[in-house]
């Protein structure tokens, strides 16, 4: 394929499911509804965490960060996706693609680190309960949150710069819904071994290592809980980290499926549905998971809505 710089002027074409217009109309309706629910649910989590004194805890401090992150993440992707579903125009400007890749990569990487920090919070609460208040003091909470956000966007900066330094093929057609790094690498007109290796390193740093640390944390949690003699005590201990564990499984499960899979036509079409789930569905489920499984959150939400929680 011929190399070109035309994409810097004309932008990119995001194919999505352009060969299935009826499916796109269905997705337009479904994604719109889920996006609205995502905005409402995550905004509610932030508000109840801020206004309810009972929720001024380390867990809800990090959950507020997670909800704000999900609001930003879906807003960086979904409006463009809905526009593409709406009609035949599937284009995104060069600048828009750069911003979308930078923001989505930064927020996705931040979420990996943030979920790891939340696992450490649950480890401290269950495995070292007598020292929990001393360990998770307000200054440390702010430092851990800052670490998650800064490290996420540092990695995103490096990856975005490397991707858009590649000479791209003249067709500049991206076979995805969004400006995802693997899809952009595929339309490069040079050997991309170096960038693919860089993507593998980033996957290890932001996916494999955080997931490993989370598993180690939960291994320690399970060992500690099994030492508790009462059934009620075990149930309560597992209940405090059940919501986080469900979110981890959903997030890392889809993330690893997108970035770690063989390349073929079948898996490319399959990965588009995974991208939809990862960018649209998962952020909408987080508030539901945390509120349904936590009595304090349900109580605070009812208070916020002006209902009597008794």
Structural class: mainly alpha
The unreliable regions are: 1-8
Total beta strand runs: 5
**Rg, nearest Å:** 21 Å
Query: Order of strands side by side in the largest beta sheet?
Result: 3-2-5
Overall mean pLDDT = 84
Number of helices: 11
The residue fraction in helices comes out at over 70%
Q: What separation lies between the terminal Cα atoms?
A: 67 Å
The major pleated sheet works out as:
3 strands, mixed
How are helices and strands ordered from N to C?
A: EHEHHEHHHEEHHHHH
Shape: globular
Strand % is under 5%
Domain G-protein coupled receptors family 1 profile: 41-290
GO molecular function: G protein-coupled receptor activity; olfactory receptor activity
Transmembrane segments: 25-48, 60-79, 99-120, 140-164, 204-226, 238-261, 273-292
Function: Putative odorant or sperm cell receptor.
Explain this structure:
Helix 2 runs antiparallel to helix 3, helix 4 (94-127) packs antiparallel against helix 6 and helix 4 runs parallel beside helix 8 (193-226). The strands form two sheets. A three-stranded mixed β-sheet has the order 3-2-5. The chain has a two-stranded antiparallel ribbon with strand order 1-4. The chain has 310 residues and is mainly α. The N and C termini lie far apart (67 Å). It is globular and about 65 Å long. The protein has eleven helices and five strands, in the order βαβααβαααββααααα. InterPro entries: GPCR_Rhodpsn (IPR000276), GPCR_Rhodpsn_7TM (IPR017452), Olfact_rcpt (IPR000725). GO terms for molecular function: G protein-coupled receptor activity; olfactory receptor activity. It is found in: Cell membrane.
């Amino acid at each position: 394929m011929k190399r070109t710089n035309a994409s810097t002027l004309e932008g990119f074409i995001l194919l999505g499911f352009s060969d299935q217009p009826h499916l796109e109309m269905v997705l337009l309706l479904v994604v719109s509804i889920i996006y609205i629910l995502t905005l409402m649910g995550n905004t509610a989590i932030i508000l109840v965490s801020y206004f309810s004194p009972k929720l001024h805890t380390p867990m809800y401090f990090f959950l507020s960060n997670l909800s704000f992150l999900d609001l930003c993440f879906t807003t960086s992707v979904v409006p463009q996706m809905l526009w593409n579903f709406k009609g035949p125009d599937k284009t995104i400007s060069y600048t828009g693609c750069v911003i979308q890749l930078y923001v989505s990569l930064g927020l996705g990487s931040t979420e990996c680190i943030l979920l790891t920090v939340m696992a450490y919070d649950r480890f401290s609460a269950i495995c070292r309960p007598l020292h929990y208040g001393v360990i998770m003091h307000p200054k440390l909470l702010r430092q851990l949150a800052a670490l998650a956000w800064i490290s996420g966007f540092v990695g995103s900066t490096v990856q975005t710069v490397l991707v858009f330094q590649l000479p791209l093929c003249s067709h500049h057609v991206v076979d995805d819904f969004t400006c995802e790094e693997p899809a952009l690498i595929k339309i490069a007109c040079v050997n991309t071994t170096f960038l693919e290796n860089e993507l593998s390193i980033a996957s290890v740093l932001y996916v494999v290592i955080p997931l490993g640390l989370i598993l180690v944390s939960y291994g320690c949690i399970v060992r500690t809980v099994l030492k508790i003699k009462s059934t009620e005590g075990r149930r309560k201990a597992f209940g405090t980290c059940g919501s986080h564990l469900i979110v981890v499984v959903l997030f890392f499960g889809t993330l690893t499926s997108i970035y770690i899979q063989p390349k073929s036509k079948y898996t490319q079409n399959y990965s588009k549905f995974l991208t939809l789930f990862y960018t649209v569905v998962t952020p909408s489920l987080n508030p539901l998971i945390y509120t349904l499984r936590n009595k304090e959150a349900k109580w605070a939400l009812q208070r916020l809505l002006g209902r009597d929680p008794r």
